[in-house]
Amino acid sequence: MTTHVPDQQQPEPGAAGAPASKAAAAIEKARSEGRAALIGYLPAGFPDVRTTIEAGIAMAENGVDLIEIGIPYSDPVMDGVVIQEATVEALANGFTVPQIFDVVEGITRKTDAAVLVMTYWNPVMRMGVRDFAERLAAAGGAGLITPDLIPDEAAEWLQVSEELGLDRVFLVAPSTSPQRMQNTVDASRGFVYAVSVMGVTGARTSVGAAAQAVVDAAHDAGAERVCVGLGVSSSAQVREIGAYADGVIVGTALVAALRDGGVQAVADLTRELSTGAAKVSAGGSA
Amino acid sequence: MTDMHQDTGLTGTDAGAADAIDAGTAEAFLSHDQSLRHAPGPYFGAYGGRWMPESLIAALDELQDTFDKAKADPEFTAQVAELNRNYAGRPSLLTEAARFAEHCGGVRVFLKREDLNHTGSHKINNVLGQALIAKRMGKTRVIAETGAGQHGVASATAAALLGLECVVYMGAEDTRRQALNVARMQLLGATVVPVTNGSQTLKDAINDALRDWVANVETTHYLLGTAAGAHPFPSMVRYFHEVIGDEAREQILEQTGRLPDAVTACVGGGSNAIGMFHGFLDDREVALYGFEAGGDGVETGRHAATITLGRPGVLHGARSYLMQDEDGQTMESHSISAGLDYPGVGPEHAYLADIGRAHYEPITDAEAMEAFKLLSQTEGIIPAIETAHALAGTMKLGRRLAADLAPGEQPSDRIIVVNLSGRGDKDVATAAGYFDLLPDDSVEQEIAEEGEQL
Fold it and tell me: Residue A201: what pLDDT?
């Protein structure tokens, strides 16, 4: 397939008058403190919008650098059972897509954490890419993580995000070819999301060697910031991945914590996870 | 009249000028240089593409590469032709339905008998082709989704024939209602996985098949059952079904000496229709009609008339018309026919609808069941309920054609070819329940109440 990836690499802060990347700033701040960035995921509206905001704030106050808020969607093909069940419940409880902006604003108003929205593409397309992006920017959001949008199909989003200074986090996987790795790294803004294993979201005891190979390949392709997600659930895994990646993404474990123990459990788990983020020996590496 | 065609519009009568304009427009359309046949994808106008997780793109690339090479390999095309002839039973017949045609305004109606294929529907064309592709890629395992079980049974059949492991994802509710089809797949050596998440329907079975594929892509081919999904599935599935339209075109020319006025088919995801239409795409004088599931009626909201009432969106890898709410969430579809009960539609149909090359109309459950009974009783052919939608649409279309004849023309001067995509053996219990043919205390009555399609 032909790609429509413009040659616009990583944004220079303030380039073309657009705001600097909030995600990049958050990761660089962690790096300057000798840490890998810790990124926490929760789906919006689970079990309700107010709780999502409280849990997001709790994550930020307990060591998360970036927050990823998912839009519950009817057909989440990249999600495992725990997140599926949470998003089904959110939808059953009446979550509507425009509420994502309330969640983003509710968190950004109270914390310094960069807040990204993780969304399957159809809800964005339905609202209109520009409308969605403008509302996200107005709410203080950093940008989008797009699990089923590849740069090849993202022409409109590339343009609008560039204009508004929003981050574009595309995924790369162990199966990604060198050519696609280059295209995806070039198209990304903020960071590149490295999928650790071939599979869907869900806690795993080990993320395996494939993750490091993906991160290395993304770095080799010129990515300044590469964060690893899928399967990460413990501070030990955060430590292991943080040794070679610029950030570590935890999702399912936090969703399960919220489900089982509420906001307090999210705060406790975040604090525990954050102990793994310190770079053991490479502190402050530029 | 020659003068009028040469005039500047100033000297001709108004009627003459209008004729000239219409003729010019029609001529431009009919003499369209660009063939619509063999559209390779990934895009069909604004539709199609690959709205898929990056993890699966390498597998889609491998599939596309293998398929492109296979198409150009005489050994492969000979293999497909041999299986079609000596296993599936092709070419399927083209049968004139004279008694049924009396209910279609008296136009001539011909049935393309995909119901006579092995496993009872057009589905076998696609599964044999894709299973061969899977072998060429060195895959040892195929996965498939199924609603009523037809594609699951066909996939299990192809896997058994070619020695592949087969896992079929099926909504948990469907596995209960379709217990006999589950048994059929198991008899063929397949494993059936009940899908308990989401709405537990066909679309959720596809979601779970995609999740399986992401995790097992090295060994596994996803044998998608319809002409939808990410590139190259829409053009590949169509390719394996093109044999339907190619045969039908040749057969109708042989039997009547001319092309038909219209070709009709039912449309869920749209694989039987696209295979049939493809043979006639460049015959601009042949009208193409796809009949969607209107369920309880499109005004009730309980239907699966995706092109009629849907909006463009992305689902399962392709941009196409989609039944979705104002938030972009996929809506549940409804149809008496499990095979049409899908909230999306193949992207090439969306394109053909937009450019006006094919027309799509909804048919209600009640209209379809009336046609189901009618074909059974006038021709001795029990159609699949999916197919009955095409038959009901053909009845309406035939009456329209008969009402719009030029002076001196007879209804029998008009010809419609219907794709009889499948046989109705699987639907006997549903139909018996619908027409109240079962004693209240019979086991079959209980089954029919649950919607069992045998």
Answer: 83
Residue positions counted in chain B: 454
| List A28, A65, A79, A105, catalytic entry | A79
The CA R_g of chain B, rounded to the nearest whole Å, is: 22
Of A111-120, B123-132, B194-203, least confident by mean pLDDT is B194-203
Q: 3-class SS at B224?
A: coil
E strand segments, chain A: 37-43, 66-70, 114-118, 143-145, 167-169, 171-172, 192-195, 226-229, 247-250
User: Which residues of chain A make contact with B63, given a CB cutoff of 8 A?
Assistant: none
**CA proximity to B303, closest of B372, B366, B346:** B366
Taking the CA atoms of A32, A34, A36 and A38 in sequence, report the sign of the dihedral they define.
negative
**B73 Cβ contact partners less than 8 Å away, ≥ 6 residues apart:** none
What DSSP letter does each residue of B287-348 carry, written as one string? Answer: EEEEEEEEEEEGGGTEEE-HHHH-EEEEETEEEEEE-B-TTSPBPPP--S-GGG--SB--HH
pTM value? Answer: 0.91
Tell whether the torsion through CA atoms of B136, B40, B211 and B56 is positive or negative: positive
Instruction: Name the pLDDT band for B3 (thresholds 50, 70, 90).
Output: very low
CA distance A232 to A202: 8
**B207/A76 CB distance under 8 A:** yes
Residue B410 CA to its chain's centroid (Å): 31
CB-CB contact of B122 with B275 (8 Å): yes
A147 touches B: beta carbon within 8 Å: yes
Q: A96, B53: Cβ pair inside 8 Å?
A: no
User: What is the Cα–Cα distance from B232 to B278, expressed in whole angstroms?
Assistant: 17
- The number of angstroms, rounded, from the C-alpha of B217 to the middle of its chain's C-alpha atoms is 27
- Of A153, A149, A199, A154, nearest in space to A173 by CA: A199
- Render pLDDT for B74-92 as a digit per residue (tens, 0 to 9): 999 999 999 999 999 999 9
- Give the nearest chain A residue to B52 (CA atoms): A148
Residue B140's CB is within 10 A of a number of other CB atoms, namely 14
Strand partners, B324: B330
Residues in chain A: 286
The distance of B218 to chain A (nearest Cα, Å) reads 10
How far apart are alpha carbons A167 and B363 in whole angstroms?
46
User: Is A89 near chain B, with CB under 8 Å?
Assistant: no
State the pairing for strand pair B47-51/B43-44.
antiparallel
For B85, B207, B291, the CA distances from B271, given in Å and listed in that order, are: 20, 19, 13
